[in-house]
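Hallway conversation turned thread

IA: we were arguing at lunch whether anyone had actually written out Holliday junction branch migration complex subunit RuvA end to end. Turns out nobody had. So, for the record, here is the sequence (227 residues) and right after it the structure tokens. Reply here if something looks off.
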Amino acid sequence: MIGKLTGKLDYRSDDHVLIDVGGVGYVVYCSERTMAALPGRGEVVALYTELLVREDILQLFGFSTLLEKEWHRLLMSVQGVGAKASLAILGALGADGTGRAIALGDWNAIKAARGIGPKTAQRVVNELKDKAPGVMALGGTMQEAAGVAEAEPVVGAIEAPPPGRRPSAAPAPTTAAAQSDALSALSNLGYAPGEAAGAVAQVAGDDPEADAAALIRAALRLLAPKG
């Protein structure tokens, strides 16, 4: 199984790229969002990959983050959603947006992706809504394991600061990690995974920069009994 490729971008088309890895060229299909984040021809690129094996063809699909790759795997598990449809959804919404839409039951957001009809969008939400909390929490774990921010694609090279310039302060916790911590806290308080994920997704959508504590406070206000 090919899980990740790092090499030079040799060629790019509308929906795929050719990555030269030690003289071997790999054709990798990507979502529009991932394609837009790729560097120029001849530059170094790194993508997480998923290999689709069929009787008549082998296809590689590339993702800028492990979270995007995981959502692709889950979307492909839904009846009627193939690789093309999955990439269309991820290209339109991104990994975080896909998780938020599914957690909130917002099938209209899924339907906005190219080629996705209302029945397919509803099926995606219905079949994956209970899995959304786990994937949202997994996003933070994936980021810690990779040692990089999930919000930043693993494409291109990271430049060192110019001589004499002090390195910037450590970045604040990313949305994925904050959502993971908030989901864990709400689960410990006894909230069901579905309602916890929906509340966290709504709060994160209203305030993308919120840390875990802010997410928990706002989510608790949403989950509090009305009246």
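OS: looked through it. Confidence is low (pLDDT under 50) at residues 148-173.
IA: good, adding that to the notes. The longest strand covers residues 44-53.
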